[in-house]
Amino acid sequence: MPLPTLLTQHIARRPQRIALLQHIAEQGSITRAAKSAGISYKSAWDAIDELNNLAQTPLVERSVGGKGGGGAHLSVAGERVLRLYQRLQVLQSQVLDAAEDSSDLDLLGRLMLRTSARNQLHGSVIAIEPHGHNDLIQLALPGGLTLNAHITRDSTQRLELSIGAPVVALIKARWLQLTAPDQPAVPEHNQLQGQIEQILHADDGPSEVRISLHSGQILCALTETQQLETLQLKVGSPVNVQFSPALVLLGTPL
Q: 206: burial class by Cβ within 10 Å (0-12, 13-18, 19+)?
């Protein structure tokens, strides 16, 4: 099966994150792979979440428990991505040799923009519904999930959106609202169901909550600790994630 277009382009733009797959294949655990790559355990999982969310199937599979906190290995899709990364390493030197001036590479770096949004979900456009000067864009995500984004008509045209177009939905962690499963949903908001996988408490700010969706994708939310206690949400709890379509940013391949 061919790799998703957005994942392939991500490999070309951010090879340092793909390199983590090599360490996982060699070390057999996230902890050891992070140490080998010279990054924190949290940074390693952030990278894995981003890659898994862009792929059609998870690239890294892990087993819980055991010596050292469990193991991890590449899936079949992860092995294909790693092979592609290794080929790109060879091509990279050829590209550097082909650059006529160092400013050419600087320009490419500016064009290939990174984003601060923690949540990046890959999908495709399945509907475009006009709303005055704006459009409601409906996306199909892996696992049968759908997502709505409310953007301006100008943005629809500038991104050249059409049915079937591949896109990445960007949602900042602060924009996600967590609710208990029995709480009423806000009308017209996006609603995603999942389970709390990890809570990282902070002494001087909101807690970081990692939510595993039923599709296998991971979302990261920032929520006040008191709110979690009020809703009786903890690791392993089912949780609903909701957010306005107006808070969904869309990106497309260059």
A: middle
